[in-house]
Write a structure and sequence with these properties.
Two copies of one chain form a homodimer. In chain A, the strands form two sheets. In chain A, strands 1, 2, 3, 4, 5, 6 and 7 form a seven-stranded mixed beta sheet that branches. In chain A, strands 8-10-9 form a three-stranded antiparallel beta sheet. In chain A, strand 9 and strand 10 (207-215) form a beta hairpin. Chain A is an alpha+beta fold and 232 residues long. The N and C termini of chain A lie far apart (53 Å). Chain A folds into two domains: 9-149, Alpha-Beta Complex (Nucleoside Triphosphate Pyrophosphohydrolase), CATH 3.90.79.10; 151-215, Winged helix-like DNA-binding domain superfamily/Winged helix DNA-binding domain (Arc Repressor Mutant, subunit A), CATH 1.10.10.10. Chain A has five helices and ten strands. Chain A is elongated and about 65 Å long. The interface between A and B is medium-sized, with 28 and 28 residues. The structure holds a DNA duplex (27 and 27 nucleotides). Chains A, B: Residues 8-141 form the Nudix hydrolase domain. Chains A, B: Residues 195-232 are annotated as: Disordered. Chains A, B: GO terms for molecular function: hydrolase activity. Chains A, B: This is NUDIX hydrolase.
Amino acid sequence: MGRIHEAVRLTADLIILTIRDGALNVLLVERENEPHRGRLALPGGFLRGDEPLERTAERELAEETGLDASAFRLRQVRVYSEPDRDPRRPRVITCGFLAIAPNLPSPVAGSDARSARWVPVVEAAGAALAFDHGRILADAVDLARDLLQFSTVATAFCGPEFTIGDLREVYETVWGVALDRPNFHRKVTDALGFVEPTGGKRPSPGGRPAALYRAGGATELSPPMMRPRVDA
Amino acid sequence: MGRIHEAVRLTADLIILTIRDGALNVLLVERENEPHRGRLALPGGFLRGDEPLERTAERELAEETGLDASAFRLRQVRVYSEPDRDPRRPRVITCGFLAIAPNLPSPVAGSDARSARWVPVVEAAGAALAFDHGRILADAVDLARDLLQFSTVATAFCGPEFTIGDLREVYETVWGVALDRPNFHRKVTDALGFVEPTGGKRPSPGGRPAALYRAGGATELSPPMMRPRVDA
DNA sequence: GTAATAGTGTCTCTAAGACAATATAGG
DNA sequence: CCTATATTGTCTTAGAGACACTATTAC
């Protein structure tokens, strides 16, 4: 085989999003090796042996967060193959994988990455992440915003039981808009398979207690949750 | 670097869709080399030197169709990295790129691929394509169907000038449904930036001549063109 | 005239959005 | 009682869909 078909190395980079303290957060690690040593970066790693790239992503997810990767649905964001995105040779090309996580108890129970921590997305977008991870993060957040519109993934940001108010806060946080409470409530409870009541209730601070729900069986959301028009 | 990070080779495979004789067609080539020699496959090729994968795709598009790749908008479908998808070693991992083309004059004016030809998608889905190209094609067609819904790419299936009827046939062909003519007409002409009239007309077979339009400036379509509900 | 296709008008119905009103808790 | 949050009700309006109707050509 000719040298013209340069061999490359592939990595899977993870964009693990969650909501903490009312803000969208992403899991970042501090790089311990060159290049970009000490910079914040998305967790990720090299494709190994005979695994598909999806398994690479699952493996890294488990290593970085200590969570069972099978509980998450990973989604490809896209491939990043600019020749200068990584100075190493042979070239390093990556694929972004989006994961949506509920609010996790400790900062991160992960083993491998002692330096892993949650960072608000607005803050991460301001910081200069390693490689082209800033761009990858932005693309993943865009994807997440679209997913909220047409699928039921919003429940993945919540725990096993949640209130309609919790779910509304997910939309408001990820989209950065305020939604009408009564209309949101009706829309969500009317959509088939989005949420189903558990029968339980949770007290609200100084108000009527909210009914608890769990995620329903549907993955597609129809009619979609319309994002309010942005009048530019 | 340890052997654990096996080097891989990357290819870009193209799913070039067009409409011919009222049917959705895809450009396929007959493989001239092993593996899968003689089988139908998507056009594509290896990443070369220091180019990004997008340029690989553009290059192959130009080589296979003779068309200027800059006239097309290529979209990543996704990465296919199953270890057994290609028997060659080192592993070959590919990324699908969707291209939407107007009805081209000759079968294919391409230079390199003498065996390139348009194949109806329904026929290609039945035939056993090389590698996992059947799956890639199916994913790309799904993506195209979604794009019609939320973007203005339908005009890319048409030439520089087209009638509303032409555009309606694009939707009907790709979605495989019949659409209401009056409602479609109003919807398209009312949407901002979707189409703009050229002032010209084109005679219809035994009917009132149709006004000609060209693609408008918008890329997003809002409100989206709703695909009729499928009652499974 | 008829046939065929292009385009307009109008009605119904679903669903989004605004917002009033009611329900249920803690103080 | 008041306050805060959850939930239901009601009205308005945008837009999808059905379909009658008009317009413009070829024959």
